[in-house]
Design brief:
The chain is built from 17 helices and 14 strands. By secondary structure, it is of the alpha/beta class.
């Protein structure tokens, strides 16, 4: 993916760097001690590492890496292992050279700072100059913040890495405290989710095997516009219950797992792995265990990444198949995960099994270096997609050239083969007549131009595929709205039939209902969208302040719209408090 940085981004980067340099020199002038030089050098080193990490993170997520991601040492180390090879060697060399130059400058400053400094025949004490330089530094930082705040669409891209480093510290320790101190009412916004009881498919057993295959970075538009990168998944729509309007509730992979398994909205900007590893939950695997199921999770990555070694057991998944116990190295072809899962199911098919498969081989970045890596570790040949590609799609996706889209679609082809392998194995083991399979994407694929101004771009950017394959072959396209929190209730409704009752601790609703007047809430990095059949309205909140952003085909206008914004604000802030404090079920 490609990020277009304007002149203001480069200007703020330079101003921010100059501000930090002035603060450092001022500190050296105030305390010209060797230990201060080393303290400041460590700070510069942290900023450099942070900048290196963002050379990977910004192109993928169009935002600067939040500092709370780095609170978890396991996650930080896993991220380095996963992405270090995608960063060019010259970036590391330049970074080391920069740190060396800073070290030389600090030593030079430390050795040549007199008590009195003469400027235009006037004598100034070095501490007076230090205070003056600090004042100038903070003026530059405030000026940059003011420029950033006037942007039409405020993002951390506009203020640069250096200022974001300090901005994140403020948001985490000051603004978050403001939110936590506000015990808001979390109820009014849910009142519109009025559903009617409907009928579920009649299954031959109440305890079928259940497989959820969560695809990595696969959007719904990959199956549209005549694209032929995933022919099997496209054909699967004809023999499955395909929910056309499906949205994720968050934009992090781990939050997709949380919302699917536990039917709860995620925190509006902090991934559950950074705040929820010590909490207790009531999730789908817990219910299935009471019905005699064994719950297993499969992922070709380290279990510490996103703290899955803690969260999966907390969500009721006891059997974990991760690197290195089940797989030799991270990011193998998804086909290997599918085969491992099917071997497990075949060996334990006498008892009902619930298996959660987390795809990984199609994770960004979608570059030639990653193609070579998959060829090396899995023997999987990935090439640029050479099939039909709608020109209008190319113009709407935020990439510098068509080849980037074709490279991305090339990673979809082995995922499609893995999905086909799953169903081939089910049929070969004669398990297809006793297994429910759910296929869905984890989150949107980042990078649509003007997605806040253009409704079609907004939908294509955010919709993910969702197909539920039942043993009895119930199929058809459903045009109702659905999101990840609705998957667990839908599965329980299918299993329990007419005896099904909604779980009070689930926020989602079964798709087998008569009403289509529902609404989806989707959050990502402090942006919130409320989506209805009539239209979408977007909101953005920074810290504890909400502001209405672009409206798409507005369902509400004027005072009614302002009331909806207030309701959404109260609900999201209130739910954030519950998620962060572990009080979801009070």
């Amino acid at each position: 993916m490609h990020v277009q940085f304007g002149w203001n981004w480069y200007a703020t980067q330079m101003l921010g760097a100059c501000g930090i340099a002035l603060v450092h020199i001022a500190l050296l002038m105030w305390w010209p001690k060797r230990w201060m030089s080393w303290v400041l050098l460590v700070h510069v080193g942290c900023l450099v590492l942070y900048a290196i990490a963002n050379t990977v993170y910004i192109p993928i997520f169009h935002n600067v890496l939040p500092l709370y991601f780095l609170e978890d040492n396991d996650f930080a180390s896993s991220m380095i292992v996963d992405f270090y090879r995608t960063i060019p060697l010259f970036t590391y060399i330049l970074s080391l050279a920069y740190i060396g130059a800073i070290l030389w400058l600090y030593r030079l400053t430390h050795q040549h700072i007199p008590e009195q400094v003469s400027i235009r025949s006037k004598e100034f004490h070095r501490k007076e100059l230090a205070l003056f330089m600090t004042l100038i530094a903070f003026i530059s930082i405030v000026a940059v913040k003011s420029v950033s705040a006037t942007d039409v669409q405020y993002t951390k891209e506009s203020q640069g890495i250096a200022l974001t480093f300090f901005d994140e510290i403020y948001n985490q320790y000051v603004a978050t405290a403001k939110i936590m101190s506000t015990e808001t009412e979390a109820g009014p916004f849910l009142s519109i989710r009025q559903v009617e009881k409907g009928s579920a498919p009649q299954l031959s057993t109440t305890t079928p095997h259940i497989i959820i295959y969560q695809l990595e970075s696969v959007p719904a538009w990959a199956l549209k516009y005549g694209i032929e990168a995933m022919p099997f998944l496209t054909s699967l729509q004809e023999r499955s219950l395909s929910i056309e309007h499906t949205y994720p509730n968050g934009c992090h992979t781990i939050d997709a797992e949380f919302t699917i398994l536990c039917s709860q909205y995620p925190h509006s900007y902090r991934p559950i792995a950074s705040i929820g590893t010590e909490h207790e939950y009531k999730c789908l695997p817990h219910i299935l265990k009471e019905k005699g199921y064994t719950n297993a999770g499969f992922h070709i990555n380290e279990p510490h990444f996103w703290s899955r070694d803690k969260l999966f057991p907390a969500w009721g998944i006891e059997e974990l198949f991760f690197v290195p116990d089940a797989f030799e190295t991270p990011k193998l072809d998804d086909m290997e995960m599918v085969d491992k899962a099917m071997d497990y199911l075949d060996a334990h098919k006498e008892n009902p099994q619930f298996m959660y498969l987390v795809g990984y081989s199609s994770h960004a970045p979608h570059i030639f270096r990653e193609m070579e890596y998959l060829r090396e570790v899995s023997g999987t040949d990935i090439d640029f997609y050479d099939g039909p590609l709608d020109e209008s799609l190319v113009s709407r996706v935020d990439v510098p050239k068509e080849g980037d889209i074709r490279a991305y679609m090339g990673f979809m082809e082995p995922v499609d083969r893995a999905i086909e392998q799953l169903f081939t194995r089910l049929e070969a083991e004669q398990l297809d007549d006793n297994t429910i399979v759910v296929i869905t994407g984890d989150h949107r694929y980042y990078g649509f131009n003007d997605h806040l101004e253009n409704k079609e771009n907004f939908i294509d950017m955010n919709q993910v595929p969702l197909m539920i394959v039942f043993p009895e072959g119930q199929g058809g396209s459903d045009h109702r709205l659905m999101s990840h929190i609705d998957i667990a209730p839908t599965l329980l409704h299918a299993m329990e039939g007419d005896t099904y009752t909604s779980r009070e601790y689930f926020l989602g609703e079964s798709v087998f209902r008569g009403s289509d007047g529902d609404e989806v809430i989707m959050t990502c990095d402090k942006s919130i969208n409320a989506i209805t059949h009539e239209g979408e309205i977007g909101y953005t909140h920074q810290d504890d302040v909400f502001a209405a952003s672009v409206t798409k085909s507005p369902l509400w206008t004027g005072e009614e719209r302002e009331e909806r914004i207030l309701q959404l604000r109260e609900y999201v802030l209130g739910h954030n408090v519950l998620v962060e404090s572990g009080r979801l079920y009070e």
